[in-house]
Design brief:
- By secondary structure, the chain is mostly helical.
- It contains 4 helices and no strands.
- Bound molecules: fe (ii) ion (2 copies).
Length: 144
């Protein structure tokens, strides 16, 4: 099946989103004791965005004739607030690289709708990269 490679790729992306949802939600819950309400609010807000991404990936997998995965990718827990943001930043950068590769795959297979979906999700992840890079005071992924 021509779509098999793309379905597998989108399921890898879905697993990353499922991991990100939980990681952000738990960071939101665990950082609550710290005196950083603005950052814990960001964890919650971004977790909800990742949920929308997961929904998009799952719907696309089903549309292409596949079965969406339910198992999340590795979830990084623990540490102080800075460690949480560093782990989240690393996750965003990993996702951006992976989604860009899958965007090329979709393009090569002549699937503009999947390409456009990835384009829009990558834009959101670059926004998250910008959020954490700015707070942590480091260069963004595209500045590197
Ligand atoms: Fe996402
Ligand atoms: Fe993200």
């Amino acid at each position: 099946m021509a779509n098999k490679e793309l379905i597998d790729a989108l399921n890898q992306d879905l697993a990353l989103e499922l991991g990100a949802i939980t990681q952000y939600m738990w960071h939101h819950a665990m950082a609550e004791g710290l005196n950083s309400p603005s950052i814990t609010e960001l964890f919650k807000k971004i977790s909800i965005v990742e949920m929308k991404h997961a929904e998009s990936f799952a719907e696309r997998v089903v549309y292409l004739g596949g079965t969406p995965v339910t198992k999340p990718s590795e979830i990084k827990m623990g540490g102080d607030l800075k460690k949480m943001m560093e782990d989240d930043l690393a996750g965003e950068r990993n996702a951006i690289k992976q989604y860009k590769a899958h965007l090329k795959l979709a393009e090569g297979l002549g699937d503009p709708v999947t390409r456009r979906m990835l384009e829009s999700i990558i834009a959101d992840e670059e926004g998250h990269d910008d959020t954490w890079s700015t707070i942590l005071g480091i260069k963004s992924l595209l500045e590197e």
